[in-house]
Every structure is written in C-alpha cells, then in structure tokens.
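4.2 Preliminary Data

To establish feasibility before requesting continued support, the project team ran the inverse folding procedure on a target of 127 residues. The structure was first converted into the token representation described in Section 3, and no sequence information of any kind was made available to the design step. The complete token record follows.
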C-alpha cells in the first residue's frame, strides 16, 4: 500500500487555527471569535511574507489586505480588533514578523493599511 503524501499546509493550518479559535473564544464573545476567524483566514496568506519566508507578498496576500482594510472601516473599533487578532495569530503561530517586511506591504501591494500589523503593539491604544 502506498504511503499518503504529507500535507504540511493541512497540519500547519490546524496547528494555527485551533489555538486562535480557543483564544478568541476565551474572550467570551461569539462575535470576536468570528471576527478573529475572518482575520486569520484573510491574513494567513501573508504569513510567509511577514515571516520572511518569501521575498514578495502573493497576490492573495494583497487581496486579503484589501479585504481587511474594508473590514477595518466597517466599525470604529475595526483597526484595534484586527490588530489584536493578528497579534494573537503571531503569538500562537510563533512566527516572528519582520518589521521591514511589514513596512514593505503597502508599497508591494499598492495600498494603504487601515490597521497596524505588529508582534508586540499595544492594540488597546488604537481608536
């Protein structure tokens, strides 16, 4: 019987998604859980770039940032909530974000970010 191919992306997705969902659900708000899940799904396409695993953001990453910009503008607390979700994602994935890669995102994707991206920013000070 032939061995099944190893699905690194599948394992990585599960290892990342489960802790994020647990963290978001521990906040006690179903809306926050859904919000962070949406942010995770969108921002996950940018992890390889901000984590310095790829030299350029993918088109999917840039499209996701456009979607997150729209999400950030839907409510006053949007930028803060996205910031917190991305920080949680960084914490649980243990992927250190490169400040220089983050700074390159707006230029590379030809857009303005309506929310900050960081490993260690105090998101509560936004708004």
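Position-by-position output of the design step:
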């Amino acid at each position: 019987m032939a061995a099944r191919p190893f699905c690194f992306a599948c394992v990585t997705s599960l290892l990342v998604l489960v802790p994020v969902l647990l963290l978001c659900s521990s906040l006690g708000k179903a809306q926050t859980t859904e919000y962070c899940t949406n942010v995770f799904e969108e921002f996950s396409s940018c992890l390889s770039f901000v984590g310095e695993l790829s030299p350029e953001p993918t088109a999917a990453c840039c499209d996701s940032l456009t979607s997150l910009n729209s999400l950030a503008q839907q409510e006053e607390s949007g930028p803060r909530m996205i910031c917190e979700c991305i920080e949680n994602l960084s914490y649980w994935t243990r992927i250190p974000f490169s400040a220089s890669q983050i700074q390159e995102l707006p230029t590379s994707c030809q857009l303005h970010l309506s929310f900050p991206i960081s490993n260690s920013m105090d998101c509560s000070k936004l708004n």
